Amino acid sequence: MIEKVELLAPAGNLEKLKIAIIYGADAVYIGGKKFGLRTYGGNFSPEEMQEGIEFAHSKNKKVYVTVNIFAHNNDLGDLPEYILELEKLQVDGVLVSDLGVFSIVRSTAPDLPVHISTQANNTNWASIKAWTDMGAQRVVLARELSLREIKKIREKCDVELEMFVHGAMCISYSGRCVMSNYMTGRDSNRGACAQACRWKYALVESQRPDEYFPIEEDSNGTYIFNSKDLCLLPYIKDVINSGVNSLKIEGRMKSIYYVAGIVKIYREAIDMYYASPEKMDAQQKSWQEALTKVSHRQYTSGFFIDKPTGDDHVYNTSACTQTADFVGMVLEYDEKSGYALVEQRNNMKTGQRIEVFQPNLPAYEQEISEMIDEDENTILVAPHPQQKVRMKMQQPVEPFAMLRRDITTK
């Protein structure tokens, strides 16, 4: 039996972990309250981590924990105890980037699988072999690699390889940046990045300190460091054929709607590759359309095909866009009555046309014809955040199905 590549999804909190797995991820990567690179990503307490790991393992899925800060001396005191805690929780691996952290993990918990983070800038087979020789079970490839380079690394190295296939791209080298540190005092390499690269910039000449020169056509400034988002879905065949073991989606700070939507699309693409690869080209258009329905910047293939050019950046805004709004999530469904219990997540009212997309059942569209609140009153609008309503469904739905409406529908 051919072993499929792993689909690895971000999980910024417990709800996102469960959604990622329900929508088809083979594994998730999470962060604890310290030692990770997403200080503002929600992150997991030990109790939440235990619940998440138990949930994942009950579904035969895996959980990896980020321990990938570039540590300073005062970070190291609590590290051994934390590593032992992760080992006790039976995590499936930890991601590290700092050589000192790697050494402490290996000596503290020799049987705990260690994955080398993309922050370690692994751009060649020699560095990957060096990590392998020291005991790493997996290496996350730098984003700055082409398909040809990845194939060469696969040819030379006998270790699990992981690569990013979707999500935000950083202007710095594999995420190692100091812009945030210098401009805000928030250390990007210790989890507190302020995303200073996404801000609006103008050019200033030293002898003219009060004169700001726009460096693009727009008079409001420019976002010269604002990369488009990575999307390798059109090249998924090449990605899998390159010999990598795990396909990684970026986005621990994204919403459950983002996680569900992106994971579902890549799950379908991977499964179709192994079952009916000849059908994939015909499916690309609908997959690409679905990708635009979740929050994103314009898409780029990054370094995978060729080196990025000026066309791989967005110069007029740092904002994300999407063509659909997430309006509700199904909590329960009663087959006899055809009603679903729905939790409101955005403006939702009768008469709106919505799309229902689900973990396993087919997606479909319908109009919201009726809503009943918890006091059994028929209502026209569900205005309260996370309000629970019963809604008549035109087709069967499953728990965690998501309702979305076109962004132009009010």
Automatic annotation (TrEMBL):
Pfam families: Peptidase_U32 (PF01136), Peptidase_U32_C (PF16325). Gene3D superfamilies: Translation factors (2.40.30.10). Residues 323-404 form the Peptidase family U32 C-terminal domain. Keywords: Hydrolase, Protease. Its EC number is 3.4.-.-. Coiled coil: none annotated. One of its GO terms (biological process) is proteolysis. It is an enzyme of class 3 (hydrolase). The keyword Zinc does not apply. InterPro entries: Peptidase_U32 (IPR001539), Peptidase_U32_C (IPR032525), RNA/ubiquinone_mod_enzymes (IPR051454). One of its GO terms (molecular function) is peptidase activity. PROSITE patterns: PEPTIDASE_U32. Transmembrane segments: none annotated. Belongs to the peptidase U32 family. This is Putative protease. It comes from Pectinatus brassicae. The lineage of its organism: Bacteria, Bacillati, Bacillota, Negativicutes, Selenomonadales.
